[in-house]
TrEMBL record:
It comes from Shinella kummerowiae. One of its GO terms (molecular function) is nucleotide binding. The keyword Oxidoreductase applies. InterPro entries: Gfo/Idh/MocA-like_OxRdtase_N, Gfo/Idh/MocA_oxidoreduct, GFO_IDH_MocA-like_dom, NAD(P)-bd_dom_sf. Belongs to the Gfo/Idh/MocA family. Residues 123-240 form the GFO/IDH/MocA-like oxidoreductase domain. It comes from the Bacteria. Keywords: Oxidoreductase. This is Gfo/Idh/MocA family oxidoreductase.
Length: 321
């Protein structure tokens, strides 16, 4: 449902590689649906989501619409009792996301997210090693990424991403990744905004106290030249460092530092979109503990909203001598 670029470039092929066949393209714009259907060789076209969802051949819905349209498709799928895989975030606010999650629970369906950062092998290996005690007790997590702003590619000029939401959505993804690799929940938030009052922020820095005592620090910027992203999970016995995993240009690398020495950790590199589809399809029988579900997205959105609120608070100036 929807004709977004992620669907075009990755997910249709991933669905087919998992042995399933996309049957319907749903879009509020029939012209968009027709073009997408022809490009992706999908037979059915619909403007009304209910028409496609009532097809008895349909087993699940994949939602790749722009953010503000995702709620309509999720609710339509819930009404027809079809499981949903959706690009994140599922809504623009935590309140709306919670409403969607409750609707899916009431319908008895699964609402899962296509969350590539969770799917990437270095992050999943980092989580497993931390859970196994390889770095001792987790003390802190650092996430840093920066590059000039580039809107994500889109098939349609009238569905361009809103730059004002870009940092917010980065925070949603980073918070979700922090919960995933630490196994802890956000508890308290402090933040710094580098933007003067009344101007648009192009970088942000925030810190979150986690439920298990770890400190999560994050820096996200559109003002710097591109640098290799870093996800560093530090424990009292060692550190795990993922390089280049957040750029969307490859799976990156994972290094473990113990006793003053670095060790490159081998990871099994698989297509994250195929991995997501396979895990989603298996969810009713074999829960994938690494997948992001609707409740996870509600928490990430709520925390990102807390970051935005903290950034609006007046900082304490440093007095002169």
């Amino acid at each position: 449902m929807g004709t977004g670029t992620i669907a075009t470039e990755h997910m249709v092929a991933a669905i087919r590689s998992a042995g399933h066949h996309p049957l319907w393209v749903v879009s509020r714009n029939r012209h968009y649906a027709t073009d997408f259907s022809q490009d992706m060789q999908i037979p059915g076209i619909a403007v009304d989501a209910r028409r496609s969802l009532r097809d008895p051949r349909i087993g699940f819905a994949y939602v790749s619409a722009v953010r503000d349209r995702r709620k309509h498709y999720i609710l339509a799928a819930a009404a027809e009792h079809k499981h949903v895989l959706c690009d994140g975030p599922i809504a623009g606010t935590s309140r709306m996301a919670a409403t969607l999650v409750e609707a899916c629970k009431a319908a008895g369906i699964i609402l899962a997210l296509n969350q590539p950062f969770r799917t990437m092998a270095p992050h999943r290996t980092m989580r497993r090693l931390a859970q196994d005690g390889e770095i001792g007790t987790v003390q802190s997590l650092l996430i840093a990424r920066g590059a000039p702003y580039q809107p994500p590619p889109n098939r349609h000029l009238d569905e361009r991403a809103d730059r004002s939401d870009a940092l917010f959505e980065l925070a949603v993804d980073s918070v979700d990744l922090a919960r995933f690799v630490t196994g802890q929940e956000p508890a308290t938030v402090t933040a710094l905004s580098a933007a003067p009052p009344g101007t648009e922020a192009d970088q942000s820095s925030y810190a979150i106290g986690m439920s298990g005592g770890a400190i999560f620090q994050c820096y996200e910027s559109f003002t710097t030249a591109e640098f290799e992203s870093i996800v560093m999970l530090a424990g009292d016995r060692g550190t795990l460092i993922a390089h280049g995993t957040l750029s969307g240009k490859g799976s990156g690398t994972l290094v473990r530092r113990l006793n003053g020495r670095n060790e490159l950790i081998p990871v099994r590199d698989r297509d994250p979109h195929v991995t997501t589809i396979e895990a989603f399809l298996a969810l009713p029988q074999t829960p994938a503990t690494w997948m992001s579900l609707g409740d996870d997205n509600v928490i990430a959105l709520r925390t990102a909203e807390a970051v935005s609120a903290a950034q609006k608070k007046r900082p304490v100036a440093v007095g002169g001598q």
